[in-house]
Automatic annotation (TrEMBL):
Name this protein carries in UniProt: Glutamyl-tRNA(Gln) amidotransferase subunit A
EC number: 6.3.5.7
Superkingdom as given in the UniProt entry: Bacteria
Residues annotated as domain Amidase: 1-445
InterPro entries: Amidase (IPR000120), Amidase_CS (IPR020556), Amidase_dom (IPR023631), AS_sf (IPR036928), GatA (IPR004412)
Active site (UniProt): K52, S127, S151
Organism in which the protein naturally occurs: Thauera propionica
Family indicated by similarity: Belongs to the amidase family. GatA subfamily.
């Protein structure tokens, strides 16, 4: 109950949790105690955790940060939730998030903004802002998140913790409320790379209920971390630095922290080489066509009929749909649905959607070419440290631009990790992003582990 007490004390200010499941947590903790006493415990048995409220949890409110699902108690567990339950993890509750995972500041949540624990006048990042803030404030030692365009890595950077988004297809999307299905991927937050490795090892695994789940044996990501200590533990690791990520756009204090981190990597034995991702700058326009297109399709299921919010007063069926959706969705979600239906509509499909898919292919090819010259790619996770609450509230395009370093990774389906490397001049954390080839999670986690 240490963590539950911390949540009671600090959550009213931070707003990191939408739902705290005190009774469920205490029951799970008692069950974990029995497993420990019986000698059947695993590494995560009894470890408390916060689930992003995008994951369906049987019998527990699952809102996805939206008024639309403010009354939705899921009848089943997401695959990730059942895997972690089976491992004996104790779920403390559901972490706040941007509505339907759309956003980079956690301000689009129907349940109010989350505050950054380092400075409560700043945003925690998004869309998994509640998960990141909970781990940073030690309201939970580990947390789940999802990353469609940076939503694990960016809040990890803003909150000074470690977050990993694995290769697309490693974590089942079953029971993970869909935003943009070809980009959505579950990920892990922890105070260290080791904690992320433990959590991720328990989250991955083939699931026949997700058509894009990969049929691969699960890996123990902690195994690589156990290598014996040496003065140059990263000897031979070639780190590629994309010219385009180090061009203009990065704040000076972020650049200073990233350069210092790269010096530290070189001291650990790594070498650095310049690489190029010539189409990286096209990632934002491509993403902000593809993601809204998929969201407009995915969110059509919220119609006020089967579950979720239904308007109290309506005329005919069409009026019921439109009033329920008008009332249930917030402004950012409506904006994305409108953009998505527009780019998919007859006459615009070729000009926008198909064109964006072509860019996506080029971006993925750039990464493959760069990864011929290096083992991992490194750069800033975000162009700046966490901005002030409200600062970008009326400027969605400015907020979209802040995703510049993270979203190309989702378009390519590659794994990416962010780990803390220091602080900006405002005292807020700076994150370094490591990007690897498909299934290079262990390599990313090992590098981050040696760095710490
Ligand atoms: N900021 C991006 C968006 O708003 C990414 C969100 C995410 O990864 N879920 O779409």
């Amino acid at each position: 109950s240490l963590f539950l007490d911390r949540i009671d004390a600090l959550n009213p200010e931070l707003n990191a949790f939408i739902t705290v499941d005190r009774d469920g947590a205490l029951a799970a903790a008692r069950a974990a105690d029995e497993r420990i006493a019986a000698g059947t415990a695993g590494a995560l048995t009894g470890i408390p955790l916060a689930h992003k409220d995008v994951f369906c949890t049987e019998g527990v409110l699952t809102t996805c940060g939206s008024k639309m699902l403010s009354n939705f108690v899921s009848p089943y567990d997401a695959h990730v939730v059942s895997l972690l339950k089976a491992a004996g993890v104790v779920s403390l509750g559901k972490a706040n998030m941007d509505e339907f995972a759309m956003g980079s500041s956690n301000e689009s949540s129907y349940y109010g903004a989350v505050k950054n624990p380092w400075n409560t006048a700043r945003v925690p990042g998004g869309s998994s802002g509640g998960s990141a803030a909970a781990v940073a404030a030690r309201l939970a030692p580990i947390a789940t998140g999802t990353d469609t365009g940076g939503s694990v890595r960016q809040p990890a950077a803003f909150c000074g913790i470690t977050g990993i988004k694995p290769t697309y297809g490693l974590v089942s999307r079953y029971g993970m409320i869909a935003y943009a299905s070809s980009l959505d991927q579950g990920g892990a937050f922890g105070a260290s790379a080791e904690d992320c490795a433990l959590l991720l090892s328990a989250m991955t695994g083939f699931d026949e209920r997700d058509s894009t789940s990969l049929e691969r044996p699960t890996e123990d990501y902690t195994a690589a971390l156990a290598a014996p200590a040496s003065a140059k533990p990263l000897e031979g690791l070639r780190i590629g630095l994309p010219r385009e990520f180090f061009a203009e756009g990065m704040a000076d204090d972020v650049r200073a922290a990233v350069e210092a981190a790269l010096d530290h990597y070189r001291a650990l034995g790594a070498t650095t080489v310049e690489v190029s991702l010539p189409n990286a700058k096209l990632a934002i326009p491509a993403y902000y066509v593809i993601a809204p297109a998929e969201c407009s399709s995915n969110l059509s299921r919220f119609d006020g009929v089967r579950y979720g919010h239904r308007a109290a007063d309506y005329g005919d069926l069409a009026d019921m749909y439109s009033k329920s959706r008008a009332e249930g969705f917030g402004a950012e979600v409506k904006r994305r649905i409108l953009v998505g239906t527009y780019v998919l509509s007859h006459g615009y499909y070729d000009a926008y959607y198909l064109q964006a898919q072509r860019l996506r292919r080029l971006i993925a090819q750039d990464f493959q070419a760069a990864l011929q010259q290096c083992d991992v790619i490194a750069g800033p996770t975000t162009p700046t440290t966490a901005w002030a609450l409200g600062q970008m509230a009326d400027d969605p395009v400015q907020m979209y631009l802040s995703d510049i370093y993270t979203i190309a990774v989702n378009l390519a389906g590659l794994p990416g990790l962010s780990h803390p490397v220091g602080f900006g001049t405002d005292g807020l954390p700076v994150g370094l992003q490591l990007i690897g080839d498909y299934f290079a999670e262990a390599r990313l986690l090992n590098a981050a582990h040696r760095f710490q």
